[in-house]
Amino acid sequence: MYNQTERILTWQPRGRKGAYISAKNYQLLRDFILQVLKTREITLKELIDIAEVRLALEIEKDISWHILMVKLDLEARGLIGTVVKWAPYKEQLLKLNARKLKKFNALPRTSMIF
Predict the structure, then answer these.
(1) Contact residues for 111 (Cβ-Cβ < 8 A; gap 6+)
(2) What is the 8-class DSSP label of residue 107?
(3) From CA 81, how far away is CA 70, in angstroms rounded?
(4) What are the angstrom distances between the C-alpha of 31 and each of 2, 10, 41, 54, 89?
């Protein structure tokens, strides 16, 4: 597991650097997002609402910001994607990229720690 001082630099789509967040929070949120997306496609708002209920005791800072940073990182790595649906209104759903997820699970976890 990670210690308190280890941090991960997240990435954003288009190759831009994101933000540094604790490795513990990154791993917790990454696993949470991937687990939720294994069951169904979901909007970012729904994902944040679920996270605020389930993870409130484990992440003491702004959960929505952390979810957004990890979501962008997973998109940049190709593990998840966004689907736009037009039913009664424009809605963006998050979904898993199963092929990339298999490759990601084979990587050593320490390669992402700074």
Answers:
(1) none
(2) S
(3) 13
(4) 14, 15, 15, 13, 30
Q: Which residue has the tokens 């190709």?
A: 78
Q: Give the other-Cβ count within 10 Å of 30's Cβ.
A: 21
**Which has the closest alpha carbon to 93: 40, 52, 54?**
40
Query: How far is 100 from 4, CA to CA, in rounded Å?
Result: 29
Going from the C-alpha of 29 to that of each of 60, 85, 86, the distances in angstroms are: 13, 25, 28
Write the single-letter amino acid at 84. V
Per-residue pLDDT tens, the chain, 114 aa: give them.
555 679 999 999 888 898 999 999 999 999 999 999 988 889 999 999 999 999 988 887 889 999 999 999 999 999 999 888 777 777 888 888 877 666 655 544 444 432
Tokens of 101: 């997820």
- Residues 105 and 101: their CA atoms lie apart, in Å, by 6
DSSP letter assigned to residue 5: T
